[in-house]
Write a structure and sequence with these properties.
The chain folds into 2 domains: about 100 residues, Enolase-like, domain 1 (2-Layer Sandwich), CATH 3.30.390; about 250 residues, Enolase-like C-terminal domain (TIM Barrel, Alpha-Beta Barrel). Helix content is about 35%, strand content about 15%.
Length: about 400
Amino acid sequence: MKITDIKPYPVWVGSRNQLLVKVETDEGVYGWGESGLSGREMAVIGAIQHYRNFLIGRDPRRIGALWQEMYRGQYFEGGRVLTAAISAIDIALHDLNAKFLGVPVYQLLGGKQRDFVPCFGHTEAYSQQQLIDNVRLLLSSGWNVIRVGIPHLEREGESEAHIFEPRESIATAAAWLTGVREAVGLEAVLGIDYHHRLSVAEAASFCQRMPAGTLDFLEEPIRDETPEAYEALRSMVDIPFAIGEEFASKWAFMPYLERGITNFARIDVCNVGGLTESMKVAAIAEAHYIDLMPHNPLGSICTAATIHLAAAVTNFAWMEVRTSPTEALNFYDDELFPMQIKLDMDGARFPVGDAPGLGIDVNEELAQSHSFKFWEAPHLVRRDGSYTNW
């Protein structure tokens, strides 16, 4: 069996592009993958097209060897653009090979260890009462692990979409979350994603403004380039950290796992290097008694690949999925993905099925009709005009 083509398809779903990748073979078997570098799809397409030039004619069954060749076959190895491209191809190779063998992808990863994959829901609000109401709605719908977004602060004459003042935000968020915990009790698992918008001092101040036990996890409070900065923050607060959605290799994860900086590994299978690299990260995390809490903000292929990863590892907490009752975003398209994995009747978990491959398929004719649409994340500024993190 030989690879005959690798085709990237940028498709617009909801409010963003998704970059799908199809790997075809001379046996007629094909596989689908997805890149996770949202907002930089054209750069990833360039890398995929480069890899295509030397992957055509290769044996797609040599998944690990092809991964190593893509990663090591250049002087400037790694980087988020390249590993996002490798991720998409690697996931597609797993899908292809599992279909060829007539088994689910998780069988290639050691077999399933669970019958369903528990998920966490996400919610945001414009007031404390709205946030409390949203959390109660999620709890009543079976979502007992809930992540809160950064509170929306609006002032007359300002565009909230582009202004972010950290100190104002942490004061409001700490008060709102304290109220949420008081309203819903201790059983719910509650966290917040600060989207790396704070400094070490701001993140510490935020945590110190809430009673102990308010939060079960704090996700990405600061940027991840400097592990020592996270270690400094770790020494100031006692809330578990969830870090890693931006990491593009096992090497990026290493200091955070080995030095006890993170307590949940926010791995993104579509960015870290696909399923091949994800299983290695999972093994390192397991050796340090750290559970995976996968980042999954994309579409049906990313979701399916993450479900198979979650099924095959023992150290797993919860998987992100953006389809809870309080979500306004739409990352899923039934016409584009006529076959995909859906939440079960309980609403907060995915069943681990037995369909060959990833258990998804793509309407390729519809995908071909899509064209790339430019999308850029908001460029946030403080009121003094200086740029800050999105």
